[in-house]
Design a protein that fits this description.
This protein is an alpha+beta fold. Among the domains are: 91 residues, Zinc/RING finger domain, C3HC4 (zinc finger) (Herpes Virus-1), CATH 3.30.40; 115 residues, Zinc/RING finger domain, C3HC4 (zinc finger) (Herpes Virus-1, 2-Layer Sandwich); 210 residues, Alpha-Beta Complex (Cathepsin B, Chain A); 40 residues, Helicase, Ruva Protein, domain 3. 27% of the residues lie in helices and 18% in strands. It has 24 helices and 24 strands. The strands form 6 sheets. Strands 11, 15, 19, 20, 21, 22, 23 and 24 form an 8-stranded mixed beta sheet that branches. Strands 5-4-6-7-8 form a 5-stranded antiparallel beta sheet, covered by helices on one side. The protein has a 4-stranded antiparallel beta sheet with strand order 10-9-14-13, with no helix packed on it. A hairpin with a 4-residue loop joins strand 13 and strand 14. The chain is globular. InterPro entries: Papain-like_cys_pep_sf, Peptidase_C19_UCH, Ub_carboxyl-term_hydrolase, UBA, UBA-like_sf, Ubiquitinyl_hydrolase, UBP13_Znf-UBP_var, USP. Belongs to the peptidase C19 family.
Amino acid sequence: MNTFLAFGREHVERHFRKTGQSVYMHLKRHVREKVRGASGGALPKRRNSKMFLDLDTDDDLNSDDYEYEDEAKLVIFPDHYEIALPNIEELPALVTIACDAVLSSKSPYRKQDPDTWENELPVSKYANNLTQLDNGVRIPPSGWKCARCDLRENLWLNLTDGSVLCGKWFFDSSGGNGHALEHYRDTGYPLAVKLGTITPDGADVYSFQEEEAVLDPHLAKHLAHFGIDMLHMHGTENGLQDNDIKPRVSEWEVIQETGTKLKPMYGPGYTGLKNLGNSCYLSSVMQAIFSIPEFQRAYVGNLPRIFDYSPLDPTQDFNTQMTKLGHGLLSGQYSKPPVKSELIEQVMKEEHKPQQNGISPRMFKAFVSKSHPEFSSNRQQDAQEFFLHLVNLVERNRIGSENPSDVFRFLVEERIQCCQTRKVRYTERVDYLMQLPVAMEAATNKDELIAYELTRREAESNRRPLPELVRAKIPFSACLQAFSEPENVDDFWSSALQAKSAGVKTSRFASFPEYLVVQIKKFTFGLDWVPKKFDVSIDMPDLLDINHLRARGLQPGEEELPDISPPIVIPDDSKDRLMTQLIDPSDIDESSVMQLAEMGFPLEACRKAVYFTGNMGAEVAFNWIVVHMEEPDFAEPLTMPGYGGAASAGASVFGATGLDNQPPEETVAIITSMGFHRNQAIQALRATNSNLERALDWIFSHPEFEEDSDFVIEMENNANANIVSEAKPEGPRVKDGSGMYELFAFISHMGTSTMSGHYVCHIKKEGRWVIYNDHKVCASERPPKDLGYMYFYRRIPS
C-alpha cells in the first residue's frame, strides 16, 4: 500500500523482506458455478453486483453457468494479520480512502488501450419487437453466398427477411462489397447476424440503425424462424461449417491445421499466451525464444537471483519481466489438464472442450514496446522486426557476463569489388539472422501458375467463384543460391578511384552461430508501392548444411582497395550541434536505432550512427551508415574516446562512464547511508553517469559486484591509469562451429501483409511437433514446414 506494486502469493514475502513494506491489500476473485435452471437461450452479459474489481473475466467460462465474487482485505506482515474490507471502524480515515481508491480504480491497461478492450455489448432496442417476414426463407447449414455478388466470405443474415449479403470492404482487400448495409438502407431492416459465428452460446449480431455490435436475447427464436437451430451450430473462424467439403488450400487453414483433430498439450513448456489484440507476433517469437536452453538458463534458471535483486520498480526492469514470462511458459503452473471430474461434467454437458487459458503477457508487452512507435500500438507487426527488437533489449540488459542472445550472433564477411579497378575490400559485420530471398523465377510449377492466373482473372471479371488456389513451389536450393549470388552496390564509392563507381557485393559466413534464424523474405512492395506477400511453398529442409558458405578471406591474386574514407557530408545546420554536443550513450534514441536495424543494418552500427549524429533522427544516421559501412569496425560496439569501455549496455557491464570519473562525494554518501558499501556506490554511479535513481537500480540489478568487492577495489586503484585488465576491448562475441543444423521451430504468417493477419508457431519438443496458436497448445498432425516465415535451426554437434 506504499508503492502500489502487485505481487503473487509466492513473491509477496520476498518483497516484504527486501523493502520492509508491511501493509498489503489482498485481492481475490472467486468463481462459482451457478445453480442450473431452465436455459432461455443466449442471454446478455450483465455485471455481477459482487464484482467490484476491474479485472479480466475468464472468457472460457460461460457467464450463464458461472458467477464471480470479489474479496478484498488488508494483510499486515510479518504476522499475516488480516483485516476484511471495507472496515471503517478499525482503519484510519487515510487508509480507508486509499483502499477505496484502489478498489474503484480502472485497470491501467484499460486506461492505456481503451480501444482494445471489449465493452459489454448493449441489448438492441429492436430485439424484443423485431418483425420477421413469413416469406418461407430457409437458410442451409453451409454453402452460403451473397445474394448480390456471389461472395462466400464475411456474410450476414438479415434477421427480418432472411437475406444473405456480404459485409463491408476493408483496407487490406478483405471483407466484402457492403451489400448488407445497402440492403438496410433500401429496406430499413435493422438487425443482422454473421454466418459462421453462430454457436449454442450466441453469435455476432450487428444493428445497422444503432451502428454497433449488439446482443439479441431472443436470437435462438429469431434464427429458428429461418430454420437454424443454434444449439447444433458450431462456428468456425473462416465462416465454414464442419460439414463443408473444401480442400485445405488456404494458408489460414493449412497453417492452423484446420479440420484436423488436434490433441491439447499440458505441462511445463506447453503453456500458451493470450492474444491481447494483434499480439500474436510477440507470442510466437517468445515461444520460440524460450524453447532455447540458453534463454531458459539465463532467465528462469536465475529466477531467485533476478527477483531478489530486481530494482525498486520491477515492472520497469527487462530481466525481471523476461524471467516472469519465461517462468510462466516453462513452469507448467498455468497449463494443467482438467481433472477427471471436470471431464465427466463436460461430457455430460455435451461440451467436451478441454480448457487452455494460457497467460496474459500484458506487462511484458507494455515494457518491451514502450517508446517504440509501432510495437506500442495495437496494430499487427512483423515478427522478424520484433525478434531484432528483442535481441537489442537482451544485448542492452545483459546479466553480468552472460548474454543468451550470443547464440544467434554471427559474423558476416562482405566482399565488395570495384568493377573498374577489380580491387576488393573485405569487411566483417555482426548479424543475428539469415535473410533468404524468394527465388520466384525458379518455381517448378510455372505452367500451373500461368493457367491459374488466367482462370482467376476470368472469374473476377465475370463475378464467378474463384478457382482453387495454386501456390508457387520454390526449391530451397534456389533460395540459397540467390542468397549467395553477387548483388550490385548502389552509390558505391571506390577508394581506388576516389569517386563513385559500379560495385558488386557478396556475403559469406565468417562464423556460424549456435542457433541459425532464417527469414524468408516473403514481404515486398508492388509497382504501385502497395505491400504484398509471396504466397509460396518452399521445401525447407529438416537438416541444413551451409558449410559451403564459409568465408575464405582475401584470396591469392586479389588486390585490396586503399583504406581511404570518403568525405563526410553533414547538413550545415547540424555541424555546430555535432561539434559541441556529445550525447550520453544511455540517451541514444532507441526508436531511430530500431528504424535502422529494421532495414537490416547491424544493431551496434545503428547505435553508433545515432550517437555520432547527435540523435538527429534516422535519416541523418542513415547517411552516416552509408558513409561508414565499409569500415572494418563498422559493426563493433560503440567505444567512447577517453572512456574505458564500450558505450552500449550490451557491450560492457561497467557502463559508459570512464573509470577516472570520480562521482560526487555527496551522492556517494547518500547511497552509503542506505546501507550499501562505498565501493558499490562508486561503481554504480560511474556506470550511470552519477544519476542517483539509476545508480540504485543498477546496484539491485548487479549483485555480483557486492559479492566481488575485491575486484571493485582493484578497479578503483587502477582508476587514475584508466586501465583495467578485464576491460580490454573484446572482439565480437560469437560461438563459431560447424555449419550443420537441424530444424526445431518455425513461425508462420497468414495474411496479405505484415500489417494484417495472424502468426502461429510450431516447435519440435520431445520428438514431436507442437503448434502454439496464441493460448491454444496442441500436438501438431501436419506441421506446414513449407509455408513458414521464420525458421529456427540448432547446430548439430560434429
